[in-house]
Amino acid sequence: MGVPYAGYSEAARQSIRAERLARPPLRRPQRPPADVAALKVLSAVAPLSEDERALVRKLCLYRESIPAGAEFAREGEAAPARLIVSGWACRQQSLPDGRRQIFGFLMAGDAIGLGLRPRPLDEVSTVAVTRVECVDALMLREILAVQDGRHAGLRNALAAARRYEEACLLDHVVRLGRQSAHERTAHFLLEWRQRCRVAGLADAERFPMPLTQEVLSDALGLSIVHLNRTLQHMKRERLIEMKRGWVEILDAYRLKFICDYQSRWPTVGGDGSSVSLVREF
Amino acid sequence: MGVPYAGYSEAARQSIRAERLARPPLRRPQRPPADVAALKVLSAVAPLSEDERALVRKLCLYRESIPAGAEFAREGEAAPARLIVSGWACRQQSLPDGRRQIFGFLMAGDAIGLGLRPRPLDEVSTVAVTRVECVDALMLREILAVQDGRHAGLRNALAAARRYEEACLLDHVVRLGRQSAHERTAHFLLEWRQRCRVAGLADAERFPMPLTQEVLSDALGLSIVHLNRTLQHMKRERLIEMKRGWVEILDAYRLKFICDYQSRWPTVGGDGSSVSLVREF
DNA sequence: CGCGGTCTTGAGCGCCCTCAATCGACGTGG
DNA sequence: CCACGTCGATTGAGGGCGCTCAAGACCGCG
């Protein structure tokens, strides 16, 4: 009776995570202002003025480094304003018995704690999956709070990122509720590829996949073992190839067919105005 | 190979739905201004001034009736501004093979097409599950667009409703990704009860459940058959009782224990200010 | 009374789960 | 340089949750 397969007898997992969280974040010296992926993502949807680009570059001079496993923000707390420059983080919720569900991932160009009106999504636990380089975006937040015409591009870009995140959450619900393990995995990989491409992190059909299978399975609502077998199967079917933190899509067409994938990335009109995603912040 | 259990060989379902959508919405004569559930829901979080209450009541004089199965708004289109007075609707997405995932439900007091900044959630297909009475809320939308101090209560209430809907969506993800059929069902019923109570539709432990098991299963990511067996099991366990469109919770404590339920409804501080959900619209 | 929709129940099975062990890669300390 | 511990990926075995198919019961309605 009662609780059917409550899953994952993983007290171990819990303690490991707790230990990771204990490590304090490091602060690093300034770095040369590379043309960061963050800027690429932001300007992918809404065109940024040269002023705005300069502003972002300037922000990026003062980086902060968050080790893998550290928590950006705990559940229920408003996250400090940060813009991710590189690395990957996830939004998640844990159940009391150790089960975990990941809502989505954050990458370069994504912001947390920036919304003027907080969403519930901004108030769940957010954890760095890899080491994350980010910058304090409090200034950005205040700039955006001023609703004058300046920085309209930045405002649009950040609003688009928020909207895209929410759109992905809807896809996530469909995946979890109505798709099989193969479909979920295929769909997720295509979505991931899309994001990496926009950020300029992808190389043709190859893109980085820093997530362990444990993390991946907690996102896709599968067990580690079954996710592994699903990936193995897709390799054997010559759909994908994985090595050393990279994934290569061998047959994108078939993969899309399997899971009925259609990108949620906003299509940009000929005049440079985004059709569906860009709105006020 | 390829698509594992693609599920539900239900071409029938599709055609039935298509037929329902064909029926045009009816327009009914005015009705006496009952103290509608909508008003109850809106004032549950943010206190409304007498002016605001009068405004809502006035809006409610001109009702529109939408038959069960009709679509408020198609996918990708912005929905017309409406405030639901009674009845139930759902946000959903269909897969090409007929599978369907329901994102959530709308009840009295919920608004569609009212957001000044559209969310992806507002752009999915929205369908009336039962007959829905609603009112044109275009006026409301314009009133809210004026960011002066007046109608701050209404703005807060509607913003809270939006936030609550998003919070429920997160719970939905956890249910679908990491909970068993029993847990999902228990959790959903408790959430539903909570909403009915706030709306004043519940009677102690009894509350209306107008959803068919088909609809319920499409929300919970289960097959109809398995949902049925799950409900049967919960009845046999003396957890719930169901008859004629009503559910009675027999053992709320045990039900909460099963699924680790905790309400996302905003707790209201002693001074009447909502702690977490009320923000600007 | 026939009929369509919904709910129920039985049977069979397969997707996906858990448990458990192994292997490779990597970093650490002796 | 090698033994060792750890983490992640992999694989086998077994089983149960939840699926599909199918048929019958129930019920409101014209």
Automatic annotation (TrEMBL), chains A, B:
Q: By its UniProt entry, which SUPFAM superfamilies does this protein fall under?
A: cAMP-binding domain-like, Winged helix' DNA-binding domain
Residue ranges occupied by any HTH crp-type domain in the UniProt entry: 179-253
Q: Which keywords does this chain's UniProt record carry?
A: DNA-binding, Transcription, Transcription regulation
InterPro entries for this protein? cNMP-bd_dom, cNMP-bd_dom_sf, HTH_CRP, RmlC-like_jellyroll, WH-like_DNA-bd_sf, WH_DNA-bd_sf
This chain belongs to which protein, by name? Crp/Fnr family transcriptional regulator
**Annotated organism of origin:** Brevundimonas pondensis
